[in-house]
Structures are given as C-alpha cells and as structure tokens.
Design goal:
By secondary structure, the protein is of the alpha+beta class. It has 2 domains: 254 residues, Periplasmic binding protein-like II (D-Maltodextrin-Binding Protein, domain 2, 3-Layer(aba) Sandwich); 212 residues, Dipeptide-binding Protein, Domain 3 (Dipeptide-binding Protein, domain 3, Roll). 23% of the residues lie in helices and 27% in strands. α6 runs antiparallel to α8 and α12 runs antiparallel to α13. The protein starts with 12 loop residues before the first strand and ends with a strand. The N terminus is likely disordered.
Length: 542
Amino acid sequence: MKRTRNAIAASFVALGLLVAACGGDDSGTTSETTAAATTVATTATTAGGATTTAQATTTTAAPTFDKNATFTYGEGAVTSLDPTLARTLYDNTYLYPVFDRLVHYDTSGSTIPGLALKWAFTDPTTFELDLRTGVVFHDGTPFDAAAVVANLDRSRTGEKSLVKGELAVIDKVEAVSPAKVKVTLKSPAATLPLILADRAGMMMSPKSFTDPAVDRNPVGTGMYQFVKYVDGDVVEYKRNEKYWNPDDVKNAVLRIRIIGDDAARLNALRSGQLDATWVDESAVANLKSTGFKVEVISKLGLFHLQLNRNQAPFNNPLVRRAVNHAIDRTAITKGVLFDLAIPTVQPFPEGNLGYNPALKVSDVKYDPALAKKLLADAGLSGGVSFNCFVVNTSGYIARTEAVQAMLAEVGIKMNIQIIAGGDIIPKFYQNQEAPCASTPFGGRLDPAQTIGLMFSDTGSLNPGKGTTPRILEILKTSLAETDQAKRKTLFQEFSKIYVDEALNIPLHYMSFPFAHRDGVLGVKGLFDVRPFDIRNVGVKAR
C-alpha cells in the first residue's frame, strides 16, 4: 500500500539560522463523536409526467466511544518498559501509553506539541523548549524543567542507555525556569525535535530512577497509568484521570497481550481474546472474508539485510553487490507478502527527503549471472558462506528463507540463525556475532537520524561502525543546514551512495496489516514509525 509521507517534521522551519517549531492546535485531539453528512437522492413526477431528482442532506452522528471499555491489543515480546533500555521496534507499543514525549507527531508525521508546547533553535547550537504546565507524573511528582533535565541527563549519560547515541550531540541541559529548558549542543542538530519525539524524549518520573524494577514498573505522565506486568502474558494499564488531554484517552483499561507467535496472536484475534493486533500478510485475505477489518498501514521503515561492512564477506563491496543482484525483490513481495509491500533498493520511501526518484528497483535488477560474475571478480567463484540472524517471527523467517534460496542459486550460502527479538541488539549490534541480520528497521522521520544511527562511525545501529568521509560530511552538513531543498539534495546523494555501494540490502518498505474486530474505532489514518500508537483508538459504545 503506497502512501506519501512528509519527510521532515513541520517543527523545523528555517528563517536564516532561527528555527521555530509548532503551530496550529496543540491538542492533537479528535472529538468523541463526529457529525457525518449523508446525501439522499429522491425522485418526483411532475404534472407533465417528467421526473425530477432532488438531493437532501441529513447529518448523523458518528459512532461514540465507550469510555468504560477495556481495549485488548496483541503485540510481540517486550524487552523493557524503561525507554532507555528498550531494544526492539515493538517496545514503543508498550511505552506510548504510559510515557508522553516532549514532542509528538500527528497522523501525517508532522511534529506537534507534546509535553513541550513549543520549541526553537535560538542559534545553531542552542535549543529551547517551553513546557506544558500543570502536568504531573503518575506518582504525583510535578512535571517541570527539573524533571526534563533529570531525564535527558539520565538518557544521555546512563551506562546502559540505548538512546545516548542519539543525544550525544547535547553538551548541557539547564532549567531556565520551571517551564523552560535550555539545551546547549556541541554542534548543530536539526533533527533534535524529532529525536525528542521518540524514546529519547519520553519522560519518566525522576523518583522512579532508583527503583531497581523500573524496567517493569514504569511511571510516566501518559494517557494510561501502569497497573501490572505479567512476564510473557500481559501488560495492563488504566486511564490516567489527570491526563492533560483527556479526549485522547478512549478506554478505561488497556491490556496489551504479549504474544510473540504469529499464529497464536491470529488465533487470539479470531477467538475474541483480542480486539486488534497486527497480522502476517498471509492472513489478510481470510480475515477480510470472515468479517474482520484490516488496514494496511504504511511505515517509514524497511525490511533489509543489514550488513556489518567491517566483517567478511561484506567488507568486500563486490560481495555486497552480488547479493543485491541475486535477489528477486518483486517475487518476494508477490509470493511471500501477497503484494502488501513495495519492493525497494533505496533506504527512504517516496515522499521522504531522502527518496531519490532516479533510483529504480530495475537499477539493481535480479541478475543471477551478474551476481556470479561479481563473486568471481571478488575471487570467490567457488562460493561464499555467512551467518545471518533473523528474529523468531514467521513472516520475517519466510522472507529470509526466500532470500536464502535465491542466494543459493548463485553460490552464496546463507546460514539462518533464528533468535529472540530482544537478542538482536546485543548479538548483532553490540557483540557483532554475525555479519548479517535480516530485520526490519523502524525508520525515522528525518533522513539524518537514519544516517546517524546506521551509517556514522558512532551510530548505535551500525555494527562495526563502517562509514566513509563523504557520508560523515553529508551528515554533518545536513544537521547544520536550514534550507530543506539543500538538505534534500544531500540526502538524495546519500541514497545514491547507498545503492551504488550496496551499504545494506533492502527488500521492501514496511507495511503492517492491522486487523481488528468490527466496532474498533480510530484506526483510520494511524501513523507511526513504530507498529502501534493507542492514542484515539477505542471501542464503539453499544
């Protein structure tokens, strides 16, 4: 399902070196009921026997949310309820209900106020936020500038923090007043508002920092207050009665069932144990035919073979290119994904600043003969073998096995190693136990975030830290540049480098089939760089 997304958040609007963010309605709400207009055509016969047609428009109320409902959603495994320790793209589903971020974004991907009402770069290395007042954490602690300073300092300096790389550009955070924070940067960072719209911007109660079980007992300011965590079973929340935007909270109770197995999650939906969940592409047609609703929600991310370019055999660009030409991406999206995803050879989707329209899938055509020649040119005419991690999810395994079969045809042996979702960070990114991971990347709204995370020499999602001087120059320049047209040119150049050098092996852009029973409301327009945000989703009143 192809959707165009705005590549850069509306928060970064340049006027020289002054960048001001935010505008419009700061609530981000949708009304509980919405009027819907219906046009009815009627015919009448005149005295002369002719007929005339008149149209009458009536207004009917849209379905109403049941604010006393319990909404039950099915998700994969959770690694941590501490945003600084979370490891997988599924974790945000569990984090969003309890933690607000400093910056939010709407269904189009544009930034809007969250716990910060407005923000601005007052000069290239000074960033200021004006905070929402009257907000309290679930434990009664006031949310203020001191809490923001404590959170950002913890996230950027914590020994185990997995978001400190994203905040490494910060030199100092200060509370100017109870409602104003000043962030001093080491260098310009145009992506900072977007970084603060993700885990790095999630605000925890400072009192919870010392709780040894904080990763299983989260305390935030969000729509829902944490109730309980049962390992391998459920995370439960209740409505935050003091939430600053009560219209966003559509349910009295939210339950997220932890079901890692695709088939078990699908069966739970069919049997009525779940109101909604994401499903494998292979289940979509049958679900639709049996009365379930399915929305295929496009994401910014992509599914790829991520490579450690500092490890053999992928330290040789000829081998990387051979793999690229050995894969029939169209066959995978048709045969494995039932045409519910878009094949790609570049890292950013159409509509993103980094999307390069000159780069086509046909530019990296499926060509086994060329793949064999490239291997021979690399001195590997006898073949090559490598290990590749894949998370234990049936859909991910299926597309990886399809790649495995294609590579075997040209003499490349991929040894698939199936691991738990929570193991991908330590095994692949940190310990570098394999040169490849067949995995989804959740994507980021600004291409500079992706480049910094995955292709810089300090990127936390760049195993081996392989990069080039030109990539680092593109990143540095894009972070300081305020002209979006110039940034677009830089990012499109990066995309060409990505394709020419086969930095990774993308297969397709991510699309998540979101299935729900009849009566679930608020799904239309759902957008996120992660699988699911519960905001404004609930159950119809009966």
